[in-house]
């Protein structure tokens, strides 16, 4: 049976040693109580919940799925009870404002809990995950009255939340949406239309569901400039309880490739009562609060599938006997050697390990930027916001692509057994596949990164990160132990800017060059970004070894994995660099009518 064990030592290494969380929290107003002892206690309790409660339900959710019955949805066995334990443990309120019942802890601590919850059981974790985004949106854009009515209940976990964006005809192009919002005399609106692909849109785990919905006012301009944002509750609030059913009904749930334990709903709004969030026709701006939360959450999904794949591939590779080592028998008492002795298997295991551990460092770094964007002074907030905007599409797209690759390696390590459901490896692949699609596909993230973030800022957003990398490389340039990491990283960091300029110059002549280069540009950016974090981890591990440590094996493994990343994974940048420079002509030359079979 597949299993999950929270990688507490790995988490502590990144959080405490690489990213110096104690210093980070001490620098933020209101976070002084986030001491190492407190944070470790929270993480250890979160690990117990993930391991003991959620992980055993992972296959249950996949096998049973959600049951739809005339508008109602029943979640898999144990899901509702697990959610009640989650609420009783105070987990929904962890990183939210005490004014609304939250515990006031930094977002980065909540991110660690989300990682463990998501890795143990991604389908289940999506229910509170969507609520978190709804809370952030209300917290930033809601009125005081809306916060009092809705945010308090969401923070306690008594109610859950969703985001309702797309419709059947528009996909990612939200400018095409048709859902209408008619103003009413009492200041409310009547919302009518249908939304699809609404994760956690209907379920039996909480007494109310608060939908955050994009819709158009009657006089709204066309396109994305005419979208407004609304709160639409499943049940109308009545004092401290729920009252009458609102005009929103689940029409069906999707039959999906994976994440069967989470209900993906078609929601039909029929004159449902809603309330405007933020200014009219500025809904997409407000919704980006939710979407950016969700994009970092989806980056976590990539990490989760890589980590889960590695954890469940490793014991099998150590136990499964097959063939002899090319350098002679290693298991002389057995008929064959364990497959972990074979270079091809080690390549897959180390790839999973490198993507999981490197991805964790990237996400935790982004989570600290979220802390700063919320709590730091004005100048530091602006800097954190800009850096976060640049790194979010990289984290979302690159980590989901590499998470899916890692999940597939898990099947391959098991061989034929990986294709069989009882081992759980094929479920990991199916569950991972959606991550590259929702919250903006890899291709959309790539356009956002190259076109919107980098080229539209004339490279300034890129410079914000490459300066950080340059400073690190310069600081460790004379450290002989770091040269295998610093020298290639410095070279690629410089090339990153040159490639950007080349693509930008071509794009001035032909805008198709942006779309042609974008995905390879993003993947190149991802490999270089992870190289920076692996170099930082190697430096910290080497420092511990030089100073003498009782955990020599742990730190040696870090340095060795960093060497693997630089030797075996970072060279993939060469292909991406060549492809992004090859131009749009080969993609656009074939006339549409000649695409035939």
UniProtKB/TrEMBL annotation:
Swiss-Prot/TrEMBL keywords: FAD, Flavoprotein, Oxidoreductase
Alphabetized Pfam families for the sequence: Acyl-CoA_dh_1, Acyl-CoA_dh_C, Acyl-CoA_dh_M, Acyl-CoA_dh_N
Catalyzed reaction equations: 3-(methylsulfanyl)propanoyl-CoA + oxidized [electron-transfer flavoprotein] + H(+) = 3-(methylsulfanyl)acryloyl-CoA + reduced [electron-transfer flavoprotein]
Keyword Secreted applies: no
Record-annotated Acyl-CoA dehydrogenase/oxidase N-terminal domain positions: 41-158
Residue span, Acyl-CoA oxidase/dehydrogenase middle domain: 163-271
All residue ranges annotated as the Acyl-CoA dehydrogenase/oxidase C-terminal domain in the record: 281-448
Record-level Gene Ontology MF annotations: flavin adenine dinucleotide binding; oxidoreductase activity, acting on the CH-CH group of donors
Cofactor: FAD
Function: Involved in the assimilation of dimethylsulphoniopropionate (DMSP), an important compound in the fixation of carbon in marine phytoplankton, by mediating the conversion of 3-(methylthio)propanoyl-CoA (MMPA-CoA) to 3-(methylthio)acryloyl-CoA (MTA-CoA).
Family of the protein in this entry: Belongs to the acyl-CoA dehydrogenase family.
Official protein name in the record: 3-methylmercaptopropionyl-CoA dehydrogenase
């Amino acid at each position: 049976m597949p299993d999950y064990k929270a990688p507490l030592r790995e988490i502590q290494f990144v959080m405490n040693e690489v990213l110096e969380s104690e210093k980070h929290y001490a620098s933020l107003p209101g976070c002084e109580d986030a001491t190492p002892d407190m944070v470790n206690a929270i993480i250890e309790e979160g690990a117990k919940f993930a391991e003991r409660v959620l992980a055993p339900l992972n296959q249950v959710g996949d096998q049973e799925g959600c049951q739809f019955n005339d508008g109602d949805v029943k979640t898999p066995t144990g899901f509702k009870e697990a959610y009640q334990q989650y609420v009783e443990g105070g987990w929904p309120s962890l990183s939210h404002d005490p004014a609304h019942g939250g515990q006031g802890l930094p977002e980065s601590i909540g991110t660690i809990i989300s990682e463990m919850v998501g890795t143990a059981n991604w389908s289940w974790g999506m229910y509170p995950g969507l609520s978190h985004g709804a809370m952030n949106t209300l917290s930033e854009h809601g009125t005081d009255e809306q916060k009092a009515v809705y945010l308090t209940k969401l923070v306690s976990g008594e109610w859950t939340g969703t985001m309702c964006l797309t419709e059947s005809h528009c996909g990612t192009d939200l400018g095409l949406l048709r859902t209408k919002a008619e103003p009413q005399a009492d200041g409310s609106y009547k919302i009518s239309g249908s939304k699809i692909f609404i994760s956690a849109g209907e379920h039996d785990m909480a007494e109310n569901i608060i939908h955050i919905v994009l819709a158009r006012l009657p006089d709204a301009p066309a396109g994305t400039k005419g979208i407004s944002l609304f709160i639409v509750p499943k049940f109308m609030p009545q004092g401290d309880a729920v009252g009458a059913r609102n005009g929103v009904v689940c029409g069906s749930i999707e039959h999906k490739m994976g994440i069967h334990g989470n209900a993906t709903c078609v929601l039909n709004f029929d004159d449902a009562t809603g309330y405007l969030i933020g200014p009219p026709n500025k809904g997409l701006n407000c919704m980006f609060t939710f979407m950016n939360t969700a994009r970092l959450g989806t980056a976590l999904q990539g990490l989760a599938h890589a980590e889960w794949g590695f954890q469940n591939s490793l014991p099998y590779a150590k136990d499964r006997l097959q063939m002899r080592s090319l350098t002679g028998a290693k298991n002389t008492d057995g008929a064959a050697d364990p497959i972990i002795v074979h270079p091809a298997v080690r390549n897959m295991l180390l790839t999973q390990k490198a993507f999981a551990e490197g991805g964790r460092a990237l996400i935790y770094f982004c989570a600290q930027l979220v802390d700063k964007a919320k709590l730091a002074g004005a100048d530091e907030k602006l800097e954190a916001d800009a850096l976060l905007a640049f790194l979010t599409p990289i984290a979302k797209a690159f980590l989901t692509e590499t998470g899916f690759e890692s999940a597939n390696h898990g099947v391959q390590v098991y061989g034929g057994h990986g294709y069989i459901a009882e081992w759980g490896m094929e479920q990991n692949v199916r569950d991972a596949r959606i991550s590259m699609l929702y919250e903006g596909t890899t291709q959309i993230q790539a356009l956002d990164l190259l076109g919107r973030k980098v080229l539209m800022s004339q490279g300034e957003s890129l410079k914000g990160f490459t300066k950080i990398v340059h400073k690190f490389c310069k600081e460790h340039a004379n450290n002989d132990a770091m040269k295998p990491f610093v020298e290639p990283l410095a070279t690629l960091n410089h090339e990153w800017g040159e490639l950007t300029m080349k693509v930008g110059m071509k794009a001035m002549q032909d805008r198709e060059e942006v779309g042609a280069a974008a995905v390879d540009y993003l993947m190149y950016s991802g490999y270089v970004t992870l190289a920076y974090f692996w170099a930082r981890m190697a430096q910290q591990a080497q420092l511990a070894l030089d100073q003498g440590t009782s955990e020599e094996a742990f730190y040696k493994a870090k340095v060795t994995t960093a060497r693997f990343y630089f030797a075996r994974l970072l060279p993939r940048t060469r292909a991406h660099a060549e492809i992004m420079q090859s131009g749009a002509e080969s993609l656009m030359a074939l006339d549409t009518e000649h695409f035939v079979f």
